[in-house]
Amino acid sequence: MASRIFFSVSLVLTIALFSSFAEAKDHLVGGTSDAWKVPSSQSDSLNKWAEKQRFQIGDNLVWKYDNKQDSVLQVTREAYLSCNTSSPVAEYKDGQTKVELKKPGPYYFISGTQANCEKGEKVIVVVMSARSRRSGAASPAFAPSPSPNSEAETPAVAPTSGASGAKGSAVMVVVGVLAGFLMM
Ligand SMILES: *[C@@H]1O[C@H](CO)[C@@H](O)[C@H](O)[C@H]1NC(C)=O
User: Which of 49, 72, 114, 122 could form a disulfide linkage to 110, CB 3.0–4.6 angstroms apart?
Assistant: First the structure.
């Protein structure tokens, strides 16, 4: 009996551990392997793609492109708006670019070919704060508080992603242990 408890606890711990890693997702920019190019019809199609994604801390952006024709620059907002390729935050030209999204907030990427950027080969990715990872149901928009303080509507910035992940894993362990007992 004791070994069964031990088994179910360690199984659940293992699952919790792996699921916290499994949350990290690779986002192929544009949704297809040939999407990093001048958009053919809608000039803003890369941002239309980005708006439909949920970017979370720890996720990766992935680009596939011909590195003889193109590259990926991470730039400031100003450089994004003006397609200024002269001093990027980071430059990638390996044809198989992977960028980890380590902190919340906006990321700006443009083509290293300025003319392509000007024709719409650029994308803004907004990474959610750590708190919004799991707060789908707990949105303050549903709270019945007609507070005049508009700051109350804005979710506070969460402590760290680590705390949120650990909390989720702890909940899973408790649920799993209970399930283990019920099975006996
Ligand atoms: C591009 O950015 C660099 C560095 O921020 C700046 O010195 C330069 O004037 C900018 N070029 C244009 C055309 O805005």
Answer: 122
For the chain, the domains span 2-183
Decide whether any atom of ligand 1 lies within 6 Å of the 160 Cβ: no
**pLDDT digit string (tens) for 104-147?**
999 999 999 999 999 999 999 999 987 654 444 433 333 344 43
Would you say the CB of residue 84 lies under 6 angstroms from ligand 1?
yes
DSSP codes joined into one string, 86-119: SS-SEEE-SSEEEEE--SSEEEEEEESSHHHHHT
CATH of 2-183 given 2.60.40.420, 3.40.50.300, 3.40.50.2000, 2.40.40.20? 2.60.40.420
| Atom of ligand 1 lying closest to residue 76 CA | 5
Contact (CB, 8 A) for 112 and 72: yes
